[in-house]
Known about the structure:
Strand content: 15-25%
Number of helices: 11
Number of strands: 13
Structural class: alpha+beta
Shape: globular
CATH architecture: 3-Layer(aba) Sandwich
Helix content: 25-40%
Number of domains: 1
Amino acid sequence: MVNSIVTSGMGSSQTPGVVVGIWEPGKSYTHAYGSSDLASNAPLATDDEWRVGSITKTFTATVALKLVEQGRLKLSDTLSTFVPGIPNGSAITVAELLQMRSGVYDYTADPTFVQDYFANPNMAFNADDALAIIRAHQPDFAPGTETEYCDSNFLLLQLIIQSVTGQPLASLIQQDVLGPLRLTQTSFPTTSALPDPYSHGYLVQPSGPPRDMTASNPDVAGGAGAMISNLGNLHIWAKALATGSLLNRSTQRMRLQTTPLSNNGKISIRYGMGIFSLNGFLGHDGGILGYSTAMFYLPKAHSTIVVEANNDNVSAAVALTIFASLAYYLFPSQFPHGV
């Protein structure tokens, strides 16, 4: 049935390849389906590295919460203390950035940005360009009044973290997360290159062949979506994230205090501090041009599901759709109304 779910999801989305990992107590299943490179028809491998998009937010949030534990940052600190000129910056707190409750404009929704990025994902772009977009738009809502997914929150957190520490976010992620957990196939890239072995990423187009989107400027997504990882490392990270193994218990409890993002009557999606709750599954998904990933841990079953797909248009829909189908098949009691 797992094979059927994955191959059906690949076919309906025209995805060249998918990697799946399922870990339950006493058993596991990992498998690579399809191709990593349409030009050479090279097969995918389970250890291929991928751009994991917004799963980066889980690492950025963990570093921020470690700084809170160390007394170097407060959740009540305001954005304007570190980054001037953002609308409502004197009222927006670090906590609200982590919780997607700041109301700042999402720079990745700007029409000109979208047009330029789809034309060239390796375009010249940095944090100053993102700030210019954010500053040019009015807030979407008053701080703390709504929960709305927004990449700007985590780019701003990156700048706050770097202001507090004087260090690049990449160095702190290595120090606080990757090193302690020995995630040697996970990185915060500084160039458009991916480490070997890696999968190419594709954008399926309405007409014509899939477009290779592998090369991408990591500064476009930054602390909101730049990172690279693979199946085995995401298996380790999913559990560590959900159980709070790198944080104090009180910090993890605070992290898991969620507010609703959406509820379609079947799937309830809530957001904490850099973490999703999806019908009891804890984790995150990630979409960036060419790649989509979903990484979730179910605490009550001590089980993890990771799905990576080398096709996306930044929505993460391919991997998340396959994940939801697998989760429903394996743990139907979590989805009493279907998916």
